[in-house]
């Protein structure tokens, strides 16, 4: 697997956030509608959301405005970019809380363990 | 132990502090201004959200598959845990499941249940501040239908009609009985 540069991770994360905010907007804005409002092609939006385009600051600023959010919400924090493949060992109290919440459902247990581990792993860095 | 009016006051303070005292409350930005990160995550069918606090850093995970109004309420609920329930322990975990409400009878006296009720009250107060709600209600024409009124208010505050209805009755706004 080719190693992605930090820049690529950054633009990908920004793209994901734009897509997420756009999909949550009400009424939901399509890629085409966002493109029109921004005065670019829909392909540009596809590329921005995929992180394939190095979107300039002023364009990100405009996108945030159109989506009715703040630019800061479209930019990941530093440790969000850290890939945390290494599993972290959870303490007993946390494991018990997850067990109680999962109530015997393995999928819920897996999702909760994944998220909590990820958050805890970040603060280790 | 907090009274509901203390919780309401705390929520309004937070909105004013963060410059978010207007509707619909930008709940995600409130979280960010309190230095809480928010993330939409897959959490399955039974969990709405959770708050993980590790060494003082708080992250709210909310269920990405639920309706937008539900996501907003979840974020507000987790902010409630953060504001009301953090002890001196720099690490904490709150998991917000659906079925906890059905266990109310068995749990009504436990601290956990009390915290959940407080976080729910906080969430309602954060998204539907009493003063702003009152202002909106006053704007309505008298012949406005009940159902329509509820739907309209819920959409202005971006909450579910159920949440709005509970909030109105908790605050004693008897819009249904008024002439």
Q: Could you characterize what this model shows?
A:
- The complex is a heterodimer of chains A (125) and B (179).
- In chain A, helix 1 crosses helix 3 (42-50) and helix 5 (92-102) packs antiparallel against helix 6.
- The mean pLDDT of chain A is 85.
- With 125 residues, chain A is an all-alpha fold.
- Chain A is built from six helices and no strands.
- Chain A is 61% helix and 0% strand.
- Chain A has helices at residues 6-24, 31-38, 42-50, 57-66, 92-102, 106-124.
- Chain B has 179 residues and is α+β, with helices and mostly antiparallel strands.
- Chain B has a four-stranded mixed beta sheet with strand order 1-3-2-4.
- In chain B, strand 2 and strand 3 form a beta hairpin.
- In chain B, helix 1 (4-17) crosses helix 5, helix 3 (68-84) crosses helix 5 (111-127) and helix 7 (146-157) packs across helix 8.
- Chain B is globular, with a radius of gyration of 16 Å.
- Chain B starts with a helix and ends in an 8-residue tail after the last helix.
- Chains A and B meet through helix 5 and helix 6 of A and helix 2, strand 1, strand 2, strand 3 and strand 4 of B.
Q: What is the string of helix and strand elements of chain B?
A: HHEEEHEHHHHH
Helix content of chain B: 40-55%
Elements of chain A, N to C (H/E): HHHHHH
Please summarize the sheet with the most strands of chain A: none
Tell me the Rg of chain B in angstroms: 16 Å
**N- and C-termini, Cα separation of chain B:** 38 Å
Largest interface: A-B, 26 and 26 residues
Mean pLDDT across all amino acids of chain A:
85
Number of distinct helices of chain A: 6
Could you list the spans of chain A in which at least 5 consecutive residues all have pLDDT below 50? none
Note the gap between the termini of chain A: 24 Å
Strand order, largest beta sheet of chain B? 1-3-2-4
Per DSSP, the total helix count of chain B is 8
Question: Judging from the principal axes of the Cα atoms, what is the shape of chain A?
Answer: elongated
Classify the beta-strand content of chain A into a percent band. Answer: under 5%
């Amino acid at each position: 697997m080719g190693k992605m540069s930090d820049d690529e991770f950054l633009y990908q994360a920004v793209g994901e956030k734009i897509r997420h905010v756009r999909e949550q907007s009400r009424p939901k804005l399509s890629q085409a509608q966002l493109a029109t409002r921004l005065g670019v092609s829909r392909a540009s939006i596809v590329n921005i959301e995929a992180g394939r385009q190095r979107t300039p600051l002023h364009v990100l600023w405009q996108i945030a405005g159109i989506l009715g959010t703040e630019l800061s919400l479209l930019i990941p924090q530093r440790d969000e970019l850290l890939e945390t493949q290494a599993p972290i060992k959870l303490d007993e109290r946390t494991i018990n809380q997850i067990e109680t919440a999962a109530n015997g459902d393995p999928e819920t247990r897996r999702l909760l363990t994944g998220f909590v581990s990820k958050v805890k792993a970040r603060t280790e860095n | 132990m907090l009274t509901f009016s203390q919780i309401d006051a705390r929520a309004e303070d937070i909105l004013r502090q963060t410059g978010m005292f207007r509707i619909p409350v930008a709940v995600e930005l409130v979280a960010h201004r309190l230095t809480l990160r928010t993330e939409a995550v897959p959490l399955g069918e039974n969990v709405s959200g959770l708050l993980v606090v590790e060494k003082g850093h708080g992250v709210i995970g909310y269920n990405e598959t639920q309706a937008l109004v539900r996501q907003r309420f979840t974020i507000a609920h987790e902010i409630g845990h953060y504001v009301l329930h953090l002890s001196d322990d720099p690490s904490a975990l709150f998991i917000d499941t659906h079925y906890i409400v059905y266990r109310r009878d068995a749990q009504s006296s436990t601290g956990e249940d009390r915290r959940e009720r407080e976080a729910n009250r906080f969430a309602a107060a954060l998204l539907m501040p009493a003063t702003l709600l009152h202002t909106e209600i006053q704007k309505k024409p008298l012949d406005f239908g009940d159902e329509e009124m509820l739907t309209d208010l819920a959409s202005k505050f971006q909450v579910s009609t159920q949440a709005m209805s509970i909030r109105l009755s908790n605050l004693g706004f008897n819009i249904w009985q008024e002439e």
